[in-house]
Design goal:
The protein has 3 helices and 4 strands, in the order E-H-E-H-E-H-E. By secondary structure, it is an alpha/beta fold. The longest helix is centred in the C-terminal third of the chain and has 12 residues, at 75-86.
């Protein structure tokens, strides 16, 4: 991570880990979509869900990035996988890790 210049808005990558979160995921995505922070990117990790995650992401946060694990890695391991996957493409100054029920 690099130092953010004084007065500059830091770039934030929000990572939402979803596992069968149909009951809560829509509300979580709607809340994130309503943010007005200009330097916020979203990565949703489908953590081995049996429920369809991609249609909800496409509906509520169409600019979000997605990745999928075929099995439930657990929250921490899914966060680590997202962090590793985003290293090459992310210029984030900060990371925000969320479970789908936030």
């Amino acid at each position: 991570m690099r130092e953010v210049a004084y007065g500059a808005e830091p770039r934030v990558l929000a990572v939402v880990v979803a596992h069968n979160g149909g009951k809560w995921l829509s509300e979580c995505l709607i809340s994130i979509a309503s943010q007005d922070y200009r330097r916020l990117r979203l990565l949703v990790v489908d953590n081995g869900s049996r429920e369809a995650v991609a249609p909800l992401v496409a509906r509520y946060t169409p600019r979000a990035e997605m990745m999928r694990s075929e099995r439930n890695l657990g929250f921490g391991a899914a966060c680590n996988a997202a962090l590793e996957a985003s290293k090459a493409t992310s210029d984030a100054d900060y990371f925000l890790f969320l479970h789908d029920d936030v």
